[in-house]
Amino acid sequence: MTLIYGLITGILFGFILQRAGILTYEKQVGALRLIDMTVFKLMLSAIIVGSIGIYLFNDLGVIKLSLKATSIGAQVIGGLIFGVGWALLGYCPGISAGALGEGHIDALWGIIGMLFGGAVYAMIYPFMKKYIISIGSYGKISIPQLLELNHWVVIIIFTILMLILFRFFEKKGL
Q1: Is 128 exposed, middle or buried (0-12, 13-18, 19+ CB in 10 A)?
Q2: Mapping DSSP to helix (H, G, I), strand (E, B) and coil, where does residue 71 land?
Q3: Cβ contact 155:142 at 8 Å
Q4: 3-state secondary structure of 36
Q5: In the chain, how many domains are there?
Q6: What is the pTM (predicted TM-score) of this model?
């Protein structure tokens, strides 16, 4: 049943991505050039909805929240690789699959890049674990824990800030 839920939510998410128009090269490059905030608005909206859903289900006992250990070293290196790949390709790597499904053959390079990157990471994982992942390791901690606030306070503040940011984007025509 878990696979069915994953398939359904994946199809719905793909539909939303397509309807938002962010599967195009122009929207992706617009995001990178900070002249079109559609990609950021959609992803920040997904973070808000996801945060509410995950913490609500966790509080109701439907799921058990399982945090992954924080590693600043891994985040910096991963973020740089992700960002450079996005800038070179013109597609966010995860968007490549949807863009390919929409007929954008150039997005195939992003899928190849993700597969290649995953294989390389699997090969160098022992090195990464020993030398990189230990840099800036803070253990399993979340932003609410770091701020010593209830998660709902953090979610509400984040949501309000994002709504203000969205309004700013709309006023500027972004």
Answers
A1: middle
A2: strand
A3: no
A4: coil
A5: 1
A6: 0.78
**Hey, what are 35's tokens?**
């002249």
pLDDT tens digits, residue range 84-138? 888 888 888 778 888 888 888 988 988 998 899 899 999 999 998 888 888 888 8
Q: Output the six-digit token pair for 160.
A: 């309000």
Residue with the two structure tokens 């499904």: 101
Length of the chain: 174
Q: Please give the torsion angle defined by the CA atoms of residues 47, 49, 50 and 55, in that order, rounded to the nearest 10 degrees.
A: 120
Structure-token match 């253990």, residue found: 139
Give the 3-state secondary structure of 119-173.
Answer: HHHHHHHHHHHHHHCCCCEEECCCHHHHHCCCHHHHHHHHHHHHHHHHHHHHHCC
Residue with tokens 């950021």: 40
Q: Which residues pair with 139 in a beta bridge?
A: 70
Q: Span 153-171, mean pLDDT?
A: 95
Q: Name the one residue in this structure whose structure tokens are 């992700």.
A: 82
Distance between CA atoms of 53 and 61, rounded to whole angstroms?
A: 12
Range(s) of the domain holding residue 163: 2-171
Structure tokens at 13: 């998410």
DSSP state of 70: E
Hey, what amino acid is at 120?
Answer: V
Query: Which ranges of 21-94 would DSSP assign to H, the alpha helix?
Result: 25-32, 38-59, 72-89
Neighbouring-strand partners of residue 71: 137
Average pLDDT estimate for 160-173: 93
